[in-house]
C-alpha cells in the first residue's frame, strides 16, 4: 500500500508522525511545509513542500491545488491520510477524481468546536476519525478512536 501523509507542520505533523507504527511499514510520501520541525522529523522521508500560509490564503490554495494534482498523478497513492489543516483540502477533493481513499483525523486540541478543515473535508472523506467523544456532535459519522497523543 502507498500512503500520502498530508499535514501542516507543527502539531499537525507531530500527531501524524507518532502514528509511525501504522505508516512506517508502507511506501509513503509526505506533503507539509518546509519548516525546522519538518526538516528534522522527515529528513529521511520522501517529502514535497507545500505553499504556506495555506489557511484562508486563496493564492496558496490555488498553488497547493496544482501541487496536489502533480503529486497525485505522479505518486498514485492508495490512501491520503491527514490531520489537517488547510493544505489537506485540495488533496482530499482531488483524491476523489483519482479514486484515492482518504482518511482525516480531527486534531487532538480542538474539542468544543470543529476545525474549518474538518468541516471542509468531512463531506468527501472516506473515513473521518475523532479523538474526543465531543467531536462526534459535529461529525456524526466519525469513527471515535480516542486520543493518539
Report what the structure shows:
A seven-stranded parallel sheet has the order 3-2-1-4-5-6-7. The chain contains six helices and seven strands, in the order βααβαβαβαβαββ. The model has no long low-confidence stretch (mean pLDDT 96). 34% of the residues lie in helices and 21% in strands. It is α/β, with parallel strands linked by helices and 149 residues long. It has one domain (2-144): Rossmann fold (3-Layer(aba) Sandwich), CATH 3.40.50.2000.
Task: Lay out the secondary structure.
Blueprint: E1 2-7, H1 11-17, H2 20-23, E2 27-32, H3 36-41, E3 47-49, H4 58-75, E4 79-84, H5 88-97, E5 101-105, H6 116-121, E6 127-130, E7 143-144
Parallel strand pairs: 1-2, 1-4, 2-3, 4-5, 5-6, 6-7
Identify the notable features of this structure and list them briefly.
149 residues, alpha/beta, Rossmann fold, 7-stranded parallel β-sheet, 6 helices
- Provide the gyration radius in Å: 14 Å
Quaternary status of these chains? single chain
Mean pLDDT across the residues is 96
Q: Helix and strand succession?
A: EHHEHEHEHEHEE
Amino acid at each position: 500500500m502507498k500512503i500520502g501523509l498530508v499535514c501542516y507542520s507543527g502539531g499537525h505533523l507531530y500527531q501524524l508522525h507518532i502514528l509511525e507504527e501504522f505508516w512506517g511499514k508502507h511506501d509513503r510520501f509526505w506533503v507539509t511545509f518546509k519548516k525546522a520541525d519538518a526538516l528534522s522529523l522527515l529528513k529521511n522521508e520522501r517529502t514535497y513542500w507545500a505553499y504556506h500560509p495555506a489557511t484562508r490564503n486563496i493564492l496558496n490554495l490555488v498553488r497547493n491545488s496544482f501541487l496536489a494534482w502533480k503529486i497525485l498523478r505522479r505518486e498514485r497513492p492508495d490512501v491520503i491520510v491527514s490531520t489537517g489543516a488547510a493544505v489537506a483540502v485540495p488533496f482530499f477533493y482531488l483524491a476523489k477524481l483519482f479514486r484515492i481513499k482518504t482518511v482525516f483525523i480531527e486534531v487532538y486540541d480542538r474539542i468544543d468546536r470543529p476545525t474549518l478543515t474538518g468541516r471542509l473535508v468531512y463531506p468527501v472523506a472516506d473515513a473521518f476519525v475523532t479523538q474526543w467523544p465531543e467531536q462526534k456532535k459535529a461529525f456524526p459519522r466519525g469513527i471515535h478512536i480516542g486520543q493518539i497523543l
